[in-house]
Amino acid sequence: MKTVVCIKQVLQLGDEVEFTADGLDVDPDYLDPALNEWDSFATEEALQLRERLGGEVVLVTCGSKQSEAALRRCLAMGADRAIRIEGVDRDPFSVARALADVVSAENSDLVLCGVQSSDAVQAATGTALAELLDLPRAAVITKLDYSGAGTAVVDRELEGGLIDRVEVDTPAVLTIQTGINQPRYANLRAIKQAEQVEIDVRSAAGGGTPAYRVRKMFVPDRGEGAEMLNGSPAEIAARIASIVKERLA
Amino acid sequence: MSVLVVAEHLRGQIRDVTRELITAGREVGPVTVAVIGQDPGSLVDAVNIDGVTEIVTVTIGAGEFENDAYQAAVEALIADRKPRLTLLGFTVNSMGYGPAAAVKLGLGFASDVHGIALEGDAVIATRSFYGSKVSAELEFPGVNGVMLLLRPTVWSPAEGVGNSSVTALDVAAVPSRARHLELIEATAASDVDITQADFLLSIGRGIGDKENVEMFKELAEKMGATLSVSRPLVDAGWMPSSRQVGQSGKTVKPTVYLAFGISGAVQHLAGMKTSGTIIAVNTDPEAAIFNVAQYGAKADLFDVAEELEKLY
Ligand SMILES: Cc1cc2nc3c(=O)[nH]c(=O)nc-3n(C[C@H](O)[C@H](O)[C@H](O)COP(=O)(O)OP(=O)(O)OC[C@H]3O[C@@H](n4cnc5c(N)ncnc54)[C@H](O)[C@@H]3O)c2cc1C
Ligand SMILES: Nc1ncnc2c1ncn2[C@@H]1O[C@H](COP(=O)(O)O)[C@@H](O)[C@H]1O
Question: Exposure string (b/e) for B80-106, b if CB count within 10 Å is 16 or more?
Answer without folding.
Answer: ebebbbbbbbbbbbbbbbbbbbbbebe
